[in-house]
């Protein structure tokens, strides 16, 4: 099956990178890879329910649809706990499929040989 990681550090501050990250994540899931999107720094904002609703980069599907498709097809969204807390975001208002984790989860996933792209 294989594994694949997408590390995303952007949200509304760079909608192009945020969108492309989920396009690639969807391609990975469609290729039957065990796929993780790891949200850190500003990227954690995407884990907040409603945040991605207004992000629509020209030439792509709306970001919220890309995220919903990704999770609906078995993709996992991991959210950096310290990054979420630093920004004062509500842990109780996360999008479907988002799980709060520490950096150790990313290290574990990558240490088992998963390639990773970063946006």
Task: Characterize this entry briefly.
The protein is α/β, with parallel strands linked by helices and 119 residues long.
Task: Summarize the structure in words.
The chain has 119 residues and is an alpha/beta fold. It is 34% helix and 20% strand. The protein has a single domain (3-118), classed as Hypothetical Protein Ychn, Chain: A, CATH 3.40.1260.10. The protein has helices at 15-30, 63-72, 81-86, 103-111, and strands at residues 3-8, 34-39, 76-80, 98-101, 116-118. Strands 4-3-2-1-5 form a five-stranded parallel β-sheet. Helix 1 (15-30) runs parallel beside helix 2 (63-72). The model has no long low-confidence stretch (mean pLDDT 97).
Apparent shape: globular
**What's the story with the biggest beta sheet?**
5 strands, parallel
N-end to C-end Cα span:
24 Å
The CATH architecture classification is 3-Layer(aba) Sandwich
Number of helices: 4
- Rg, please? 13 Å
Strand order in space, largest sheet? 4-3-2-1-5
The tally of beta strands, per DSSP, is 5
Q: Which percent range describes the beta-strand content?
A: 15-25%
Query: In terms of per-residue confidence, which ranges show pLDDT below 50 for 5 or more consecutive residues?
Result: none
Highest CATH level, the class? Alpha Beta
What is the mean pLDDT?
97
Helix content: 25-40%
Derived structural class:
alpha/beta
Succession of helices and strands: EHEHEHEHE
Per CATH, what is the topology? Hypothetical Protein Ychn, Chain: A
Number of separate structural domains:
1
CATH H-tier superfamily: DsrEFH-like
């Amino acid at each position: 099956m294989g594994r694949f990681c997408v590390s995303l550090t952007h949200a509304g501050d760079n909608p192009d990178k945020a969108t492309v990250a989920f396009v690639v994540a969807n391609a990975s899931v469609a290729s039957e890879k065990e796929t993780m999107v790891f949200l850190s720094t500003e990227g954690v904002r995407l884990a907040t329910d409603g945040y991605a609703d207004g992000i629509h980069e020209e030439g792509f599907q709306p970001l919220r649809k890309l995220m919903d498709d990704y999770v609906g097809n078995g993709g996992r969204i991991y959210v950096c706990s310290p990054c979420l807390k630093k920004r004062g975001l509500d842990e109780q208002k996360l999008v479907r499929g988002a799980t709060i984790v520490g950096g150790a989860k990313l290290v574990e996933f990558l240490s088992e040989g998963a390639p990773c792209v970063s946006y």
